[in-house]
Amino acid sequence: MGTLRLDVSDTALRADYDRIIRRLLERGDDMPELDEAPRLEGTYDPQVLALCARNWRIRMRQEHHSSAVFAGMLPQFMAAGAPVDVKMCLLRASMDELRHAALCADVVRVLGHDPALETSLEAEPMAEHPGVPDDEVALRNLFFVGCLSETVAVALLTEERGMCKEPWVAKVLRQLTADETLHARMGWIWLRDRWPHLSADARERTQEYLAFALAWYEQCMVRATPPARIPASILEQARAIGFADCDVSRELFYETVEQVILPQLDELGLHARKAWRDRRLMGDAIAGQVTLTGAGA
Fold first, then answer.
1. Is residue 128 part of a domain?
2. Averaged over 243-247, what is the pLDDT?
3. Are 240 and 163 in contact (CB under 8 A)?
4. CA atoms within 13 A on the CB side of 242
5. What is the band of 292 on the pLDDT scale with cuts at 50, 70, 90?
6. Which of 95, 176, 193, 200 has the most beta carbons within 10 angstroms of its beta carbon?
7. Do the beta carbons of residue 243 and residue 58 sit within 8 Å?
8. Domain coverage including residue 202
9. For residue 210, is it within any domain?
10. What is the distance between the alpha carbons of residues 141 and 83, in angstroms, rounded to a whole number?
11. What pTM, to 2 d.p., does this model score?
12. Which pLDDT tens digit goes with each residue over 163-186?
């Protein structure tokens, strides 16, 4: 355990960090970091600010961890002999997630709270999938992160952005949504590229893995969105700051899986709807060491 802080240093590296943020990570839209004095325009109950601050701290921790997930996939893609552009995109995504963590910390500050969070600072090991060829290991992990986790994250962020009435927070949500969309595309692009080249045995193994991955990810999302009774007056104000409660998040998860993810997988040739039905047979089975990334809590 330790204290997670997303402050920048006072060293000369600060200048390099600023250049990276402005030149490498900019996507052409307004960058939240350029606002010298971000603030809330509305007035909110202290309970609302505390609730939203807690939500953004959780997201800060998730984004910080997600950076290690993308970086952790790089050695696996190197072992798989992946093209350099794919490996570069993994590092880019890792840098995106570090930036997201810092932005989340900034939102907590704007809400009037300290973003410091007592949490485990150790990165979880990446799934190794023993007995599976290197190219399938890489495919499985980017599939789980991109096609599942980040695709759901885009839906959640889009919902929050639609509710948000605060201009600066909405700007942060737009930036996160744009980046997570790219991260999701990485998974879908790689899956679509590699699937036609897999052998019959590899396809069978991937099909079997799909049911495990869906079952495990559902368990992750259910644990991350426990039922919570929030007074209507508090929830209405919180939504104006872009807060999606657990009930909405869980509903969006199932909607995204069933209406976005499964149809695309079926179109590729995986029997995704069957795998989604079969996940109920998996019980507590674990598909290797897999990680929830990017989803709001």
1. no
2. 92
3. yes
4. 30
5. very low
6. 176
7. no
8. 44-119+135-281
9. yes
10. 17
11. 0.87
12. 999 999 999 999 999 999 989 999
What string of H, E and C letters represents the secondary structure of the chain? CEEECCCCCCCCHHHHHHHHHHHHCCCCCCCHHHCCCCCCCCCCCHHHHHHHHHHHHHHHHHHHHHHHHHHHHHHHHHHCCCCHHHHHHHHHHHHHHHHHHHHHHHHHHHCCCCCCEEECCCCCCCCCCCCCCHHHHHHHHHHHHHHHHHHHHHHHHHHHHHHCCCHHHHHHHHHHHHHHHHHHHHHHHHHHHHHHHCCHHHHHHHHHHHHHHHHHHHHHHHHHCCCCCCCHHHHHHHHHCCCCCHHHHHHHHHHHHHHHHHHHHHHHCCCHHHHHHHHHHCCCCCCCCCCCCCCCC
Q: Does residue 127 form part of some domain? A: no
The CA R_g of the chain, rounded to the nearest whole Å, is 19
Please report where in the chains the tokens 């603030």 appear, as a residue: 39
In a domain, 289, yes or no: no
Total residues found in the chain within this entry: 297
CATH label of the domain that carries residue 224: 1.20.1260.10
Q: Give how far the C-alpha of residue 194 lies from the chain's centroid of Cα atoms, to the nearest Å.
A: 23
Structural domains of the chain, count: 1
